[in-house]
Design brief:
316 residues, mainly alpha
């Protein structure tokens, strides 16, 4: 391999994400007691799966040139709806179906504002956060429901394949589907074209508006699935249960090499970015850094990655 090829590989965001992830794991294993045990790593992977599912949808949105800030509220909404339905005596299938339908409705709502009203994605999705939070607060009167079934708990915490939590298996299936979707389907290719040059995509016959409905519905659906799994993992819900995933999902996406201006990136890097964020989050918690310190570190990390990989000029 020539020196130029080696340098090019070292500058590849996906390669960088994997290298940094491995280095972070090694450092954590050296500094944190019991970090390198099987039990700890299975727990770490379990927690990473919830973020990873959300990041699947966020990555598709960012590749298309958008951003979805509302994923955190969709996680909360999905868990609250599912829990409320169960508490009201509905069966598990109905509770899950209603939670996911509501999640799809949020995605369609975001897409309508972005595609037809030409509202910038960041503004539209932030407005959606306020709407969801307001509706949930009114509907629950500030007291979230506490319904959960053995099936939902088992869907998140059970172990059908070796010692892997079922949530990890769900994540593996969903990320495999996302890789196929982005690499081998015409819709996935259209997402990249839209993110690279939306006007060129339109001139080539891509249905921009219909694709935006698909993109934002997939993002909300992924967040809705994560919300149900988080409900099963926690055994209950509360009105800020999804808050932590808002910036974490964006951080994992950009750290994984997805260009913040769209059109570039792959899911190999996104997987590495997801696990890197979880390693860092665990390390900061175990080392007893204050929540304010963790927020500061995360913000600086996102800024550094965007400065490194997000300054390309976008064609329009």
């Amino acid at each position: 391999m020539s020196e130029n090829n080696l340098l090019a590989r070292l500058k590849n965001p996906t390669v960088v994400a994997f290298v940094v992830m491995v280095l972070a794991w090694v450092a954590s294993a050296m500094l944190i007691r019991n970090f390198n045990t099987l039990r700890y790593n299975l727990s770490f992977i379990h927690n990473a799966a919830f973020l990873g599912i959300i990041v699947i949808g966020q990555a598709i949105v960012v590749i298309s040139g958008g951003i979805d800030m509302s994923v955190s509220s969709v996680v909360t909404m999905s868990s609250v709806i599912a829990s409320a339905c169960i508490q009201a005596g509905m069966g598990t299938p109905a509770a899950i179906a209603l939670a996911l339908l509501a999640s799809l409705a949020v995605g369609a709502f975001n897409a309508t504002g972005i595609a037809w009203l030409r509202i910038p994605p960041i503004i539209m999705s932030i407005a959606t956060i306020s709407i969801i939070e307001g509706v949930l607060l009114i509907a629950t009167n500030g007291t979230p429901p506490s319904g959960v079934t053995a099936f939902i708990s088992g869907l998140s915490n059970g172990r059908m394949i070796w010692r892997l939590p079922n949530a990890v298996v769900v994540y593996a299936v969903l990320v495999s589907l996302a890789i196929w979707f982005m690499m081998f389907s015409r819709w996935g290719r259209a997402v990249y074209v839209i993110g690279t040059n939306e006007r060129a995509a339109w001139l080539s016959g891509v249905g921009i508006n219909s694709m935006k409905y698909l993109i934002y519905c997939l993002s909300s659906l992924a967040a809705g699935i994560a919300g149900i799994l988080v409900l099963g993992y926690m055994g209950s819900t509360y009105l800020t249960i999804g808050t932590q995933y808002q910036l974490f999902s964006i951080a994992a996406t950009v750290i994984g090499g997805i260009s913040i201006i769209g059109g570039k990136g792959n899911f190999a890097g996104v997987i590495a970015g997801t696990f890197l964020i979880e390693i860092i989050r665990n390390a900061l918690i175990v080392t007893k850094i204050s929540p304010a310190g963790r927020e500061l570190f995360q913000g600086l990390l996102i800024l550094v990655v965007i400065l490194a990989y997000g300054r390309e000029k976008r064609q329009r």
